[in-house]
Structure formats: C-alpha cells, structure tokens
Amino acid sequence: DAGITQSPRHKVTETGTPVTLRCHQTENHRYMYWYRQDPGHGLRLIHYSYGVKDTDKGEVSDGYSVSRSKTEDFLLTLESATSSQTSVYFCAISESPSGSPGELFFGEGSRLTVL
Amino acid sequence: EDQVTQSPEALRLQEGESSSLNCSYTVSGLRGLFWYRQDPGKGPEFLFTLYSAGEEKEKERLKATLTKKESFLHITAPKPEDSATYLCAVRPLKGGGNKLTFGTGTQLKVEL
After folding, report:
1. Distance between CA atoms of residues A24 and A98, nearest Å
2. CB atoms within 10 A of CB A44
3. Do B98 and A33 touch (CB under 8 A)?
4. What is the band of A105 on the pLDDT scale with cuts at 50, 70, 90?
5. E strands in chain B
6. CB-CB under 8 Å, A90 with B44
C-alpha cells in the first residue's frame, strides 16, 4: 500500500470556522492532489501540487487554499467552512504523469461535517 | 468540458453471473482512460489504464476494453469479494499533472 496518511480522518465543525486537512506521504512522489467526493458528483479535483510551493487549481477550488512546504506534506485549508463543504476529502499522489498517467494512489479519506 | 457517465448506477449479480459495466466519455483528445475500484470507507484503488481504441487489459476476473466513445469493464464469474464501487476516469491530452475527470461510479453487489 502507498504510504499516504490523512488527518484528521473525521471532523465535525461549525460554519465559519477554519479547517485544515493534512496529507502526508512517504513515497517521495512529486504530484499530490486533493479531491472531494459527494453523492451524485463523483470525485472532483480541488487543488493539486506539482512540487514544493508549486500548486494549481482544480475544478472546485473556490473556498479552498493549499500549501506544500515540503515534498511529503500537502495541506488543504478551508478558511471559513460552509455547509456546502461537508464532504469526504481524499488526498492522492502520483509519480510523473508522463510515465504513468492516471495512476493515482489515494489515501483513506477525511470525512468533514460542517454544521 | 470533459464528461464521464457510468451505467448502471447500481448492479446486483449472483455469484458466477457475468456482466459488464459501461463508461461513456467525451473528452477533447484522450490521453488515457482509467478504472478504479473503491471499497466502502476507503480511497479508490487503481485497476487499469487504457490508451487507445481496441486496447484491452485483464486482471483476474476483470477485463477492461476501450472504444472511441466508451469503455466496458467486463466481470466474468464474479465472487462476493468483487463487490465494490467501480469508477471510471479520463485524462485529456491537454493540461498538466494527472488531472482526471471521474464518473460517479457503478456500485456492484455480488451475492452468494
């Protein structure tokens, strides 16, 4: 199994509070991703990183920010959580897209509930 | 805009009853089509990559095929342990990283 750890695994918070989810990898992969999964929508890309301090937006990036100060850690921050951000968040990693396009390794997920 | 549609949404099979799952896609140039398996409460697990029409990949009881508009995941003589949600995703030729567009999945239940 790929060495990916997400924390926390479960969190309940209130509207308007900041939330940070952490993804830690031990594989030294260059690319890291944050997806959210909701019924009826499937997995949707929030942000991704292609190196330390190099990040880009996905299709549902509004309300989210990310940071990557070390190869192994990718943080997802909700500055002011809203109920629409209640979801299951998955971190994924991959090697070079040219070598193995589409082969992502996913973490176990972080279930976030915003009341 | 890239789109992936999977059908059926849910499928219930008896053990040994073969069937196929469908993934229809529209993409502005296909870099690759990917199948994943997801067990309840877990992250998706990579199964196959298909690059071009006519290509096939096999793994145990699963075989994935690809045409210019759709992909099929054939399940031969399934067992209860094949029960999971199967996800299809595409990556377009343009764009950086491994930015995939996923379908909503087919939830497969195999019963004894």
Report:
1. 23
2. 17
3. yes
4. very high
5. 3-7, 10-14, 19-26, 30-38, 45-50, 56-59, 62-66, 70-75, 84-92, 101-102, 106-111
6. yes
Judge if the upstream peptide bond of residue A97 is cis by omega within 30 degrees of 0: no
- Residue labelled with tokens 């990898």: A25
A positions 33-92 inside 8 Å of B (CB): 33, 40-45, 48, 50, 56, 58, 90, 92
Which residues 35-74 in chain B show a CB within 8 A of chain A?
41-46, 49
Q: Which of B60, B53, B61, B55 has the alpha carbon at shortest distance from B18?
A: B61
**Angle CA(B61)–CA(B67)–CA(B71) in degrees, nearest 5?**
45
pLDDT, tens digit (0-9, with 9 covering 90-100), for A61-104: 999 999 999 999 999 999 999 999 999 999 999 876 555 667 89
Neighbours of B85 (CB within 10 A): 20
Residues in chain B with CB shorter than 8 Å from the CB of A107 are 43
Cα A76 from Cα A67, distance rounded (Å): 7
